[in-house]
Amino acid sequence: MGYTSALERDTGAIGDNVRAHAAQEIAKSAAAESARKLGINLGLLTDAAIGNKDAQAQLAAELDRLDAKAKSSTGLTNEMGGANVDLTKSNMDVQASVKSVREELTNQNSSLNASVEHQKRFQEAMEGSSAGARGKSTELSLLAGMYGTNVAALSGATTAERDAATQLANTTVQMQLQNAAGDLLKMQLDLLAGSH
Prior knowledge:
Blueprint: H1 3-9, H2 16-28, H3 30-38, H4 42-49, H5 53-79, H6 85-126, H7 131-147, H8 151-193
Helix pairs in contact: 1-2, 1-6, 2-4, 3-6, 4-5, 4-6, 5-6, 7-8
């Protein structure tokens, strides 16, 4: 599931499905380990990735602080002759982790924004269709989300169910006709036998 399908399941808004997708993508990324090294909560990173302005500001401030601290410490170590190799390596690791988190945040923001734009264009394109078709599409999307499937599979299941109901109705009518024919035959036999 990508951001586009998560948006569809959230009916075009950034909701639980979009947040879950962002959290999953972040958890799979190298940035998750980098954030852990930096002491940054993945929930904060997820909130920032889906556009929460407060989370973005808080994360940016923390990344700026950590980056500045690492650069300052590296500069000081270099001024002192670069004697502390471990501290220099540690500061370089912090800077690499900050960069990794920023890149993943940019990546997730870009993916989400592209999907939001796609969803907006899709909705705009659908404006020309009838309200009934839009309502049916939205209804199918919601049902598919509830059942954890996609619209195509749900449509296929709905068609199969409708076909089965039609077949059952046809079979029922056929049985009723056969019963009626049996009753007519019995009446004719009774008339012939004179036992009416």
